[in-house]
Specification:
Layout: E1 6-16, E2 26-27, E3 29-34, E4 37-43, H1 44-50, E5 52-66, E6 68-70, H2 89-104, H3 107-123, E7 126-132, H4 136-146, E8 149-156, H5 167-181, E9 187-193, H6 201-214, E10 218-222, H7 226-236, H8 240-247, E11 254-258, H9 264-273, E12 276-279, H10 281-286, H11 294-299, E13 304-306, H12 319-334, H13 342-356, E14 374-378, H14 390-396, E15 403-408, E16 411-415, E17 418-419, H15 424-444
Helix pairs in contact: 3-4, 3-15, 12-13, 13-14
Length: 445
């Protein structure tokens, strides 16, 4: 290693959880960070002997780990949190969500809703999020201003919606958005075909052709409910996964969200073709959509990430809570308490999400050369004591409320629990105003 040199930051926490190349908790280790990247991870005395930092942050009660990756969501739907409580998916969409979106969704709505979502996500340890919603220009702009890493998917749906008349207009606008952000270091634009039942075959094939030409990701809702899959089989004789296979759409750049209904043959197709799966346990449970077979997918070698879905169907964007639900759900389904251990869940919420979004070469683990997307969680309080295995506290306690520091590419977004790039007072004020307007509209009938 080099002689003493000036770098930006040395982090000296009580514990480090690097995820890779080894997924184990390390005590007595430090991180050296400079110019937005991780330079070194090693025993604290060695790191301090080889590097001199402009800031040396000692966090003896904290665990430092990679930032969480929220691999699926609709950020601005935070402004619809709690609407349609208790309704099944199709009634929830058709009777509540779509009418409200039709009246209120606008660039201002998306900008304010995305900021509200990011404030919650940063405070609970998310450094990268995937967003599929109307007016992606507004969500991309909001993410850029906040300094968050994001995959912004422009929505593609065959019928008129608040953002586009049809899929052709959506593609035109979305490709312009890609051109605008093609060189942005934190933002990646991708295709967001809503679902197999809202995008015809010819359009799906056109999306795949363009994605291949531009090397962009595709994310879609796939096999979300039993009713959706049953209807597809009745109409075409095929499930949506089988239809995607026939169309050549089961490819590594496809990110399949939900996947609560999947048989052994379909699971084999997903594994063989390299499709990523995004598991949204709380949303699926709240809407009674079904159960994604995560242990079976992982055993088959499928890349699995975690997502919260939108706050309208969750109602939280706390990825630590998502980890806990995913772990407990797998244990209950299998009857095996060893299913999806705490370390496995943290890996799924970090490197797993990075792999699913094709970002694992940049983020998801605390390895030298990767970008410094990381968080610190304070385990010094009474609700975390005593600490025998920090990973258990991360997954099975209220760890999202204990996040004290967040960095994206080395830039502090949260310091000692205080947001650095988002104005929580103004965000809260605008969110309350939207709530009053929307409620007044609902009361009018």
């Amino acid at each position: 290693m080099p002689e003493h040199a000036d770098i930006d930051l040395i982090l000296e926490p009580g514990w480090l959880l690097p995820i890779a190349p080894v997924n184990e908790v390390l005590a007595g280790y430090s991180l050296a960070i400079d110019q937005g990247r991780i330079l070194a991870l090693g025993p604290s005395d060695q790191v301090q002997a080889n590097w001199r930092a402009r800031e040396h942050l000692r966090l003896p009660d904290h665990v430092v780990l990679p930032g969480l990756v929220n691999a699926h969501g609709h950020a601005a739907m935070s402004l619809l949190r709690g609407l349609g409580e208790g309704l099944p998916l199709q009634r929830w969409l058709e009777e509540v969500i779509w009418p409200v979106e039709g009246r209120w969704a606008s660039e201002a709505f998306i900008q304010d809703g995305t900021q509200l979502a990011m404030a919650e996500m940063v405070r609970t340890g998310t450094t990268c999020f995937s967003d599929m919603y109307f007016f992606p220009e507004a969500s991309a702009r909001a993410a850029q201003l906040a300094g968050m890493r994001a995959q912004i998917l422009f929505p593609l749906i065959q019928f008129p919606n608040p953002w586009s008349r049809d899929i052709s207009e959506g593609l035109d606008k979305g490709l312009r958005l890609h051109d605008q952000y093609r060189d942005d270091p934190l933002l990646r634009i991708g295709f967001g075909p809503h679902a197999p039942y809202t995008v015809p075959d010819a359009d799906l094939q056109r999306i795949l052709t363009l994605a291949d030409e531009l090397d962009l990701q595709i994310q879609t809702h796939l096999h979300e409910t039993a009713g959706e899959v049953d209807q597809a089989r009745q109409q075409t004789g095929l499930s949506h996964i089988e239809r995607f296979a026939d169309l050549g759409l089961l490819v590594p750049r496809l990110q399949a969200v939900h996947m609560t209904q999947i048989n052994e043959r379909e699971l084999s197709l997903v594994a063989e073709t390299g499709v990523s799966v995004i598991h949204c346990p709380q949303s699926n449970l709240k809407l009674a959509s079904g159960f994604c077979p995560v242990p079976e997918l992982l055993a088959a070698g499928v890349r699995v990430g975690l997502g919260t879905d939108g706050a309208a169907s969750n109602d939280s964007l706390d990825m630590f809570t998502e980890m806990r639900f995913a772990s407990l759900l797998a244990k209950a389904r299998s009857g095996d308490p060893a299913q999806l251990t705490a370390l496995q869940m943290v890996e799924t919420a970090t490197l797993g999400g990075a792999r699913a979004l094709d970002l694992a070469d940049r983020i998801g683990s605390l390895e030298p050369g990767k970008e410094a997307d990381l968080i610190a969680v304070d385990l010094g309080g009474v609700a975390s004591q005593p600490v025998y295995a920090p990973q258990a506290q991360l997954v099975h306690t209220n760890a999202g409320s204990l996040v004290s520091h967040v960095w994206v590419a080395g830039r502090a977004l949260l310091t000692n629990g205080q947001l650095q790039t988002l104005d929580s007072t103004a965000i809260n004020r605008r969110a309350r105003n939207w709530g009053r307007q929307i409620q007044a509209g609902l009361d009018e009938g």
